[in-house]
Every structure is written in C-alpha cells, then in structure tokens.
Amino acid sequence: MDKISILIVDDDKYILNIFSRLLTEKAYTALTAVNGKKALQILARKEIDIVITDVKMPEMDGIQLLREIKDKYPAIDVVMISGYGSINDAVKSMKQGATDYILKPFSLDEVLLKIENICKRKKKHISKKEMKDVTPFPNIIAESKTMKEILEEVNIVSPTNATVLIIGDTGVGKDVIARLIHAKSKRSNKPFIRMNCVELNEGIIESELFGHEKGSFTGAVSQKKGRLELADTGTIFLDEIGDIPLSTQKKLLRILEQKEFERVGGTETISIDVRVIAATNKALPYVVKKKKFRKDLYYRLNTVMIKMYPLHERKEDIIPLAEYFLERFAGGERKLILTRAVKDMLVSYSWPGNVRELKSTIERAVIFAKGEDINLQKLFGEKDSIDEVDGTFTIECP
Q1: Sheet strands side by side (includes 100-103)
Q2: What pLDDT digit, counting tens, does each position of 166-218 carry?
Q3: Single pTM value for the model
Q4: Which of the residues 22, 113, 202, 311 could staple to 245 if both were Cys, CB 3.0 to 4.6 A apart?
Q5: Distance between CA atoms of 69 and 77, rounded to whole angstroms?
Q6: What is the CA radius of gyration of the chain?
Q7: What is the per-residue burial (b if ≥16 Cβ within 10 Å, else e) of 126-158?
C-alpha cells in the first residue's frame, strides 16, 4: 500500500499537535483540521485513508462529520474520539458507520494499535481482490450475467461526461453504481455530492440544490452554497429524481443545458462544471404522461440509461453478496458459515427489499449466530412466516 494519510479533526490544537507529531514519527502522512467544515474542505482536495475525529466540536460535531464522510467518501475509515467515557456516543457513532472508537482518557499506544489494525484490514482487502482478479470493479459483486452487462456499460460511460439515469427498484444498489461511475471517471478526485430528492420538501429543495442568499427567506441568516455549487468540477447524484417538484424541474433543465443557475434570492448567475447522475424507482414515462414530470427534462436526463434488476432476477449474486456481508459484519473475530439449508433459503426467498434487505438480514443473523452456524430461526426475524407481496412464497421458520 502507499503511505497512509490520516486526517485528525479536533478543536483542541494541543491534541492536533500531539497526533500530528506521533503519526509523522510513525511514517504516516498527517493532516489536521480544527472543525468539521475545515475537514470537509481538506477531504475535497486530498486523498485521505483514515479520519480520526472528536465527537464534541462546535459548528459541526463529529457525528455530523461522520455522516458527511460516509455519504461522500464511503471508503474512508472513520475513528471517533468520544469524551469522558461516553459509551452512548461511541455506540451512536458505530451505528452511523464509524470503523472504531476511542474513549477518553486514552493512550497514544491505543490509538496507534487501532490505526495499525485498520491498515492491516485495508491491505488484506486489497490483496484479496488482487488475488481473485475476477472483475475490474472492486467492491462490486457481479456473478450474474445482468450485473456483468451493467458493469460493462459503466466501464463505457464512466470516462465520458454524459448524463446518466439509473432506474430500478428500491434497494437494488443504484447509489453504488452512481458512485462507481464517479470513481472510474476523470472527475474521481473531485467531489461526489448526493442529494435524495424524496427527503426534501418543496420549500427547501431549491435552497439545498441551488443555495440561497442571506435574507432570501425567513431563517436565511447567511449565504449558503447549494449542493450543485459544492459539486463543481465533480459529480452530483440526484437520487429519487422522480420526486423532484415541477417548479424545480425547469431550473434543473437549465443546469443540464447551460450549466448555470442563481441562488435562491440572488441575481448573480453562477456557472459550474458538474456531471449529473440521476436515479429513480419510478417509471418516468408514466409520470411524464401524468404531467408530473417534464418531458424535456426526462429526455435530457436519459442520455444514457442503466437499468438495475431486482435481486430475485439475478439469483447468482445472492450467495456471493451474503458471504460478503457475512465477512463484513462478523469481521475476523468470528468464524461463521452459511450452511446448505441457509443458502437454499436465501436463494428461494424473493427479496422484495433487494440487496438492502439481504444486508439487513445477514447483519441480524450475525448478531444472533451461535457457534459457527447461522441461526435459521433468526435469519428472517422472529415472525413465524414471511408472506410475500405476490403471495407466492412463505418461509416457515423451524
């Protein structure tokens, strides 16, 4: 592996100096930031492997920073420093995706040990992928013909600046493909900004997307850059684009055609260089027919369409995915196996929640596992049966 780069985030400059000296002595590349906002600025410019951040910080606390990192840079390992022995903060951090945590008071040897463990895991992961050499797409499970075809499409479209529309059911991995396109593009070292359109109501979506000027509406106490501006020179991923309000669609069309916009309440025209990737679980032609989505925007988004298939239509991926999640959640501390009975059950189930449901199922199974075997009764929760939406399959738990 190349020299590991570590970003330390803490509002205590004394702590930053100690960490910086220690890590430099141990041949790591050490960078520092006095708050979460400064950290995000560094992450947008530099390749960082590990972030070590305090939980309690002004403006943006460590938990908020963790969410931003996991959203924009999911490959970065984040270690949280939780003050005064607060195990609650540590647990919350792990649920948000932190790799590890350190409780105060701590020793520097403890910090170095955790960093070494992360580096070993990273090195082991890379070596394993190099040995297998089954696909040029790291971290993607592609045993089925349909997934291999999708990866071929990704390989073709990634180096271009073409707008991409990814369609498919909820939980199939549209966000994974969007991140992969960005990672394989010429913009890979530039920002990747995600916005989930369904999570934002009509009153704030334009502020989030375009930004706003101070005083443009009640509560706008300062100027704010929108996600488009933050994604400049990089990629913006508009998830669930089918839920964006009609009033915003015209402005988004202008972005795609002219690469310019104004902040809410502003008059200055801002030009940007951004690639747009959109995703939806809706049948956009039907939504267009119902006049809830602009036809011109649909055609502009649909320069390249990638269709993601539900998990039950690519059964060859189920067991490899399950084994990947099993290794991820069990880690190196526990040896767990998928028995033939478990594999048969996994393949027979139709997975209405797709990969997301499979991930949650394996995580739950690891929690309740006894010995080396997965507990069949806990595999799909504690219900006596699971009735599928179409009524065609029922699992009877022993």
Answers
A1: 29-33, 5-9, 50-54, 77-82, 100-103
A2: 999 999 999 999 999 998 899 988 899 999 988 777 778 888 899 888 888 87
A3: 0.63
A4: 202
A5: 9
A6: 23
A7: eeeeeeeeeeebeebbbbbeebeebbebbeebb
